[in-house]
Amino acid sequence: MSQDLPVDQRPDLLEDEMEASRAPLLDHLYELRSRLIRALLAFAVCTIGCFFVAGPIFNILVEPFIQAFKSHGVTEDPRLIYTAPLEFFFVKLKIALFAGLFVSFPIMAWQVYAFVAPGLYKNERGAFLPFLIAAPALFTIGVLFVFYVMMPLVMAFALGQQQAGGLDAVQIEAQIKVSEYLSLCLALMTAFGLSFQLPVILALLGRAGLVGADTQIMQTVPVYGLYEISIWIVSVMERKAAEQEEA
Q1: DSSP single-letter state for residue 9
Q2: Range from 20-34, 111-125, 229-243 carrying the lowest mean pLDDT
Q3: CB-based contacts of 111, cutoff 8 Å, min separation 6
Q4: Helix axes 178-195, 54-61, angle to 10 degrees
Q5: pLDDT tens for residues 35-63?
């Protein structure tokens, strides 16, 4: 019957459809803004809280350096230096940001999951949730691996580069800055934390049908070869460092 009406009195079906779709879109945008605000608030609160304990956290992070320092038989107290007036303040600020992100990640990840979950099927939500738990757990394992394994090795190697002075050699002494030590520590923790996400990434790719067990077996051979080459390079560097110390 609307076709019998004048053109200017006929209902605009296209405009009605756009208005009907605009309301759900605005609801989603409002919810997205709410989720983002909650995630940012969680990050801000955790960062501020971590700033007040940044000093004790840094004292924990320097434990590998202290152990490596003592293992070289040095009788002096281990020390780090800073050469800029506010260098250590910014070190503590960086610690607070990193620790705040680490502590608030479960809340931020939950906000992301709560936003996308209504658009997923029940089986998809059940498959997504384990990855949400596994990702921070594996990242934590990577951080602990750096703290207990990598940093002691790196610090022992770094301090081993020192050289005693003599008639034909200049004395080389390690004077490590707090900012450089923290940058190295956080860089390794981030790198290993992300590399430990490999099972999560491959599992997601496998669930999406992009990779299979055969593909991963084929990748094992070149990866293992690169790993053996890395071991050989490190062993050569250690032998050279030992020869320099004996000389």
Answers
A1: G
A2: 20-34
A3: 35, 36, 38, 39, 42
A4: 80
A5: 899 999 999 999 999 999 999 999 999 99
Q: How far is CA 65 from CA 49, 52, 184, in A?
A: 26, 23, 12
CA atoms of 120 and 60, how far apart (whole Å): 42
Cα–Cα distance for residue pair 247/228, rounded to 1 Å: 29
Pair 25, 146: CB distance under 8 Å: no
Q: What are the domain boundaries of the chain?
A: 20-211, 212-247
Residue 89 to residue 95: CA distance in whole angstroms: 10
Confidence of residue 95 (pLDDT cuts 50, 70, 90): very high
2-39 tens-digit pLDDT: 455 554 555 554 455 545 555 577 777 888 889 899 99
In whole angstroms, give the CA distance from residue 199 to residue 197: 6
Higher pLDDT, 216 or 114: 114
**Cα angle 97, 103, 104; round to 5:** 85
User: CB–CB of 106/133 below 8 Å?
Assistant: no
Dihedral angle over CA of 46, 50, 51, 52, nearest 10: 120
> Residue 177 and residue 226: Cα distance in Å, rounded?
32
CA-wise closest residue to 94 among 196, 24, 217, 190: 190
